[in-house]
Amino acid sequence: MVLGSRSISNAGIVAMRIQPASDKPGSAFTIRDLRRAGKPVSRVGEKQRLSVGAPPDKSFRTGDLVYKVSSGQAFTLSQSACRKRLESVTPGAAVIDLAIAMPTPGRIELNAACHGLSLARSYEVESFPAKDRPLAAEVLAKVFGKTGPLPLSLGALTCGELPAVVVPMSRLNAVRREFYQELSDRLQDRQNQARTDHRRQAMDDLVPAVAAAEGAVRLAVATGNLRDLSLLKQNQVDELLLPLTLGASGRILSGHRAALKAPDRVVWDLPPAIFDADWPGYQTEVEQLVDLGFRRFRLHNIGQFMLFGDRQELLLEGGYRLFTTNSQAANAWRELGLAAATLYVEDDRDNLSAVLKRETGLPMAVTVYANLPMMISRIPLPGVKADRAVVSDRGEAYRVDNRTGLTIVRPEQDFSLLGHLDELQQMGCRRFIIDLSHLGLSSPACAEVLSAFRRNERLPKTSTFNFLQEMV
């Protein structure tokens, strides 16, 4: 192995992954020792050749790609071990500015300032006239420079005029321990109070919870083709999410004028990403659709706000890729100009309920059926055929589609919350989204999904993602 632009060390455990040039799964392993010219080393620099140990049951070939997956000792720690390590971390030492005075040979006065907190105390001490080496600032600095296990550190020390006496070291140490312990306790109390105040303020800043919203349930169906406008004729379909592609406005005028009869029921769904070369075309497309009377658009990227400028008459909503997993995110989207949002598809039921019950002023939709892409890339996957499933190391099957010029990897198993609609309505959801863009409108599967929605029945061989478990 020859290092490129980065150095590597064995100060912590390093995880590597070797990816074959074929479509076979790669192999990941940890590196625990480094060798250069046959000798163990602790660190190597850029563009230096080194040897590392590899699993005995694995073989690699020239041309395989090498990835540094992770480094550091935390790589091998379990979740509980990581939590314990974090809990053991203590804050940095608080620096103390200390003033010491002895107005009489029998009394020592301490005045400390630390992180905005002041503490002044007076202690009785026993002293003796000094024949030589009387009490001096250097002695006090050495004594009070010791803080033991307390998270304190002596900073500036000032000393007034000291009497020519000797104070037993044991008494000075006892004074120091008592004074520093009280100071540390007060600092800790203040930190705890500040933490409590911050938490209370954060909770007060949260949007208050309200009773679940009431009203009629609306169904929005996402489709992949303008030919599917006939879905608007079905009683249960209230809105249609149509893909916003280059030339969509022209196709509306040339053969799909039915959309012009109900522009308020059409939401133009932007692609997940718009590349630089296509940006001017999408700007023109938005302008032409607005001129045709359309006002509703769904965004999937924060940069897509720029397509719409300051048009106040438009109704923009966020797709699930604009993550909305708490009320503060909802407030932020509303302030940026969204009129509605879609909750995150991988959220769990408890968090969905918590967000839906907050009065954010932003209507929320929940996706209840879709085949969600696991990866979208401009990089083609050589040797992968669309008519053949790709199976992962864990036996999960995926389909690869590159008909649009992008490589889109989708699981064979669809996502579905059908069968949980009553529960979602009780949480306050009044708008559901069904994405049928991967199914043909005339396919039996499409009819089966719409029928299951109408009856609120679960569909076999589908996944609920994290809905029934905790989101990680």
Could you explain the architecture of this structure?
The protein is α/β, with parallel strands linked by helices. The chain has three domains: 8-76, no CATH class; 94-191, no CATH class; 218-463, TIM Barrel. The chain has nine helices and 28 strands. The chain has helices at 79-88, 137-144, 169-205, 248-255, 279-291, 327-336, 349-356, 421-427, 444-455; strands at 8-9, 14-19, 27-31, 34-36, 39-41, 43-44, 51-52, 65-71, 94-104, 107-114, 117-124, 128-129, 152-159, 165-166, 218-222, 239-243, 266-269, 296-299, 315-318, 338-342, 364-370, 375-377, 390-391, 397-401, 407-411, 414-416, 431-435, 462-463. The strands form seven sheets. It has an eight-stranded parallel β-barrel. 22% of the residues are buried.
The total count of strands amounts to 28
- Structural class label: alpha/beta
What separation lies between the terminal Cα atoms?
A: 36 Å
Which blocks of ≥5 consecutive residues have pLDDT under 50?
1-7
The structural domain count equals 3
Strand line-up in the sheet with most strands: 15-16-17-18-19-20-21-27
CATH class of the largest domain: Alpha Beta
Query: DSSP helix count?
Result: 9
As a percent range, the share of helical residues equals: 10-25%
